[in-house]
Specification:
Structural class of chain B: alpha+beta
Number of strands of chain B: 24
CATH class of the largest domain in chain A: Alpha Beta
Strand content of chain A: 35-45%
Number of domains of chain A: 2
Number of strands of chain A: 15
Helix content of chain A: 10-25%
CATH topology of the largest domain in chain A: C8orf32 fold
Largest sheet of chain A: 8 strands, antiparallel
Largest sheet of chain B: 5 strands, mixed
Oligomer: heterodimer
Helix content of chain B: 25-40%
Largest interface: A-B, 24 and 24 residues
Chain lengths: 290, 534
């Protein structure tokens, strides 16, 4: 699919601020199933942008606005082409315990230190144990969607997996965090993915819609036979494997490794950000005759 | 009789005493000192001690302890009046050993954030590295100016039962304690100049100059002299005295986060004349507090954007970000192999025998011998969480067993080292052996220079090996003797260059100057010489 993405973050401060520094991770990644065709960042007030690629491979745009200002808008525009990933590989549980697997898995098998106590998730781990790593990935994805309520009031940006368990609900960020914890408990390497989601039926619906930034997980599944292991995206908020509607920005161990916008400024003034993500389907689905 | 009639001294059994041999005779290089000390009446020693305390209080060289009523008490920094003496031959080994080890640690850090050769060679497991809490993903692929990461190192050494020097800990984040090395020497030369007679003791007072030269050497300044600053978290920091002392001695600004600002990708200092570019920052706070954009977002004592400037190579930061990965205790057992791998040399200084708890066999051994071993958490410094098996209660060992099994890789086990002893003055003026360790300081700029001696910490309780100042530990002026040979030591990298000791440009902090006194109330040392800042 082809998408245009317009991601605007707006701050209106109730006074003047200075030295407003921000780091943005918003550029769609280029992966085997996705290509970023265009990417622009514009700020108002205008300023010089600095770019670098972080440890996990995401492009970071940084900027600072020194002079006094009472508003800041950050507009990100991107065009991206996505394709459906291949069928995920099916393999035995034993395949997780090979050197080849562990080498690729690296730190995404390790505890992050942000996990709840094991007894808090023991039941969910039991319930998601299935016949193979792939079956467990599917089951985990579906179980989280069914067990927890999508509730934007239940948690906040700094919430932990414990908060989700306490509240029984949360947002995509929380679902993804819990997903990684459960998968790692099964010995499946898992990482947190930040991105955009075309939250509509790929076959029909609108050509343009307002969405939010989204989060899901990627699990490292052993290849079938002697194939290399593969990172497979799964969206526990929606109970499905990730597909062409998922536009990935980057990944990390958890949210704090890939926050879309992180910033600080000097001043007494406060502002709540207004965030608007508009996704546009750039080509209509080809008709059978096209 | 080497010992005078008024003072007698014997070393403990089964322990290496640095002043006397097992038969009780003074070691050669200590004969004169022991005679000089022995000629003092206990009352004379006690009087010297009172003068020392009064001077330290006046100079603000103090630390806080909790008194019996629970109130903080400001005490003079505990300096024992009998110096510790290290002969030239021993020092030559230590110095070369430290330089070798620091060079290897520096290369390890560079490797971790770049090619990872040591991982690909199967020497250090990647998982061990990425699971260290001080592994800094934020500086992956960033090479600091000059390729130097460990500008200031303070490695902890101990001597075991046969007198062999061993490395107990590597401190390459923000090791503290050097100000006490300088203060102790200054105090001893004034209080007891007669003890120095007959000894040629290598100077330590050039440290600030060595540090300044190193910082300038790595500072990315195009023209003219680099602007260097010392960055302190503030007066509430336990090591604030040292931060202020070093800035003053180097003749550079002491700044806090609010004095620094990043514009574009350059770091500036706010001055009365406007912004002034900063080329090198000696920072005395841990990575995670340095930049809220890249590290802990809740740090209010950081400089936003500092990492951007650092990545752009416009400012040198000492020590570099990410060095903590090398002084983690779980990495420590691998240092001898690092030396072999990066330098192709055999280690000059050995480790204390250590068990790696990520290995099932080692773990089983430690669990079976908890009451005989020392167990330490890997990411802490300053003695936090350390359990000494032979001194622990059964309840403490049971709890330790539980704690370790939660995540064994976060712990190491070590053989108990019977630390060497040195004669130490008791309150009544008599001498008694006490256990000691040594933290020498090395500075890495264009080359590695080791300051002769270091901070000797003394366990003041008889038989105790806890040298932490929070445990009532003391300190000693530590002498390194000049070599007897008339030829200059070809390896005397630690000797000041010619003319360097006359520093007209540097303001001299006097032993009893008003300036030092001003920081007295701000000195809040809890455990100053322990590990690291913040």
């Amino acid at each position: 699919m082809h998408f245009g993405i317009d991601y605007v973050t707006e701050y209106r401060y109730d006074g003047e601020v200075i030295d407003n520094l921000n780091a943005i991770r918003a550029r769609p990644a280029t992966t085997p199933v996705q290509r970023c065709d265009e990417f622009h960042v514009r700020t108002d007030p205008e300023t010089r942008l600095h770019r670098y690629v972080d440890y996990f491979g995401a492009e970071v745009v940084e900027f600072g606005i020194d002079r006094p200002h009472d508003h800041l808008s950050i507009e990100v525009r991107a065009r991206v082409t996505t394709t459906e990933p291949d069928e995920p590989p099916e393999a035995e549980w034993d395949a997780l315990r090979t050197t080849a697997y562990e080498t690729v898995a690296g730190e995404f098998l390790l505890p992050t230190g942000q996990e709840p106590r094991p007894e808090r998730t023991a039941e969910l781990v039991d319930l998601t144990r299935a016949t193979s790593p792939l079956a467990t990935l599917r089951l985990t994805t579906e179980l989280l969607r069914d067990r927890f309520v999508y509730d934007t009031q239940a948690t906040f940006v700094g919430s932990t997996v414990d908060d989700l368990l306490d509240q029984g609900g949360g947002v995509c960020q929380d679902f993804a965090h819990l997903g990684t914890v459960l998968l790692r408990a099964h010995g499946i390497a898992a990482r947190y993915v930040s991105g955009y989601l075309w939250a509509s039926d790929p076959e029909g619906g609108d050509d343009s819609m307002e969405v939010e930034t989204h989060a899901w997980v990627e699990a490292l599944l052993p290849g079938s036979g002697s194939e290399d292991p593969v990172w497979v995206g799964a969206d526990p908020t929606n109970g499905v494997l990730a597909g062409a509607r998922h536009v990935k920005i980057g990944h990390g161990r958890f949210y704090q490794d890939v926050p879309p916008v992180r910033g600080v400024y000097r001043g007494q003034a406060m502002a709540e950000p207004g965030v608007k993500v508009t996704m546009t389907r750039l080509e209509a689905q080809p008709s059978p005759r096209a | 009789m080497p010992n005078g009639p008024t003072l007698s001294y014997e070393g403990p059994e089964g322990i290496y005493d640095e002043a006397v041999t097992a038969s009780g005779a003074p070691r050669d290089h200590l004969t004169q000192l022991m005679e000089a000390v022995g000629s003092l009446e206990p009352e004379q020693l006690a009087a010297l001690g009172r003068r020392r305390d009064a001077n330290f209080i006046q100079a603000g060289i103090t630390f806080d302890t909790i008194g019996p009523d629970g109130q903080a008490v400001d005490r003079p920094f505990p300096l024992d009046l009998v110096p510790r003496v290290i002969d030239a031959d021993d020092w030559s080994v230590i110095k070369r050993g430290l330089a070798q080890r620091i060079r290897a640690l520096n290369q390890f850090i560079d490797d971790v954030y770049h090619g990872r050769e040591i991982v690909r060679e199967g020497i250090v497991p990647w998982r061990l590295i990425v699971s260290r809490s001080h592994f800094a993903r934020q500086v992956d692929g960033v090479r600091p100016p000059g390729g130097v990461y460990t500008h200031i190192a303070g490695l902890d050494l101990v001597r075991d039962a046969d007198g062999t020097w061993r490395v107990l800990e590597d401190n390459v984040r923000t090791p503290s304690g050097i100000s006490y090395v300088l203060a102790n020497r200054q105090a001893m030369t004034r209080l007891a100049p007669r003890l120095f007679s007959g000894y040629r003791v290598r100077p330590v007072d050039h440290y600030p100059q060595v540090l300044l030269e190193a910082l300038r050497a790595v500072a990315p300044a195009d023209e003219g002299e680099a602007t260097v600053v010392v960055w302190t978290p503030g007066p509430l920091n336990p090591a604030y005295f040292e931060h202020a002392f070093l800035a003053h001695q180097m003749g550079v600004e002491l700044v806090q986060a609010s004095d620094l600002v990043v514009r574009g990708d350059v770091c500036y200092m706010r001055t009365t004349r406007g912004l002034e570019r900063v080329h090198a920052i000696y920072r005395r706070l841990d990575d995670e507090f340095c930049d809220p954009l890249d590290f802990r977002p809740d740090s209010v004592i950081g400089v936003p954007g500092l990492l951007r400037a650092y990545r752009a190579g416009t400012v040198a930061v000492a020590n570099a970000f990410g060095t903590g990965v090398a002084d983690d205790k779980a990495i420590y057992p691998y240092v001898p192999d690092m030396i072999r791998f990066y330098l192709g040399e055999e280690p000059i200084l050995q480790n204390v025998p250590t068990y790696r708890m990520d290995r099932p066999d080692d773990l089983a051994h430690v669990m079976d011998h908890l009451d005989e071993l020392v167990v330490k958490p890997t990411s802490e410094s300053g003695g936090k969480g350390v359990v000494i098996g032979p001194h622990a209660t059964k309840a403490e060992l049971d709890q330790l067993r539980k704690d370790v099994m939660v995540n064994p890789a976060k712990w190491i086990g070590q053989e108990v080292v019977k630390l060497s002893t040195v004669p130490t003055v008791l309150e009544d003026g008599s001498l008694s052996p006490r256990h000691v360790d040594l933290r020498p300081f090395a500075v890495f700029g264009e080359s590695i220079r080791v300051i002769p001696g270091g901070l000797t910490r003394v366990a003041m309780t008889p038989g105790s090996m806890l040298v932490n100042s929070s445990m009532g530990g003391g300190s000693k002026d530590t002498w390194v003797l000049e070599s007897d040979s008339p030829e200059p030591d070809p390896e005397a990298a630690d000797a000041p260059a010619q003319g360097e000791r006359l520093l007209p440009s540097l303001p001299e902090v006097r032993w009893d100057s008003a300036w030092v006194g001003q920081s007295q109330q701000q000195q809040q040392t809890r455990d100053i010489t322990e590990g690291e800042d913040v």
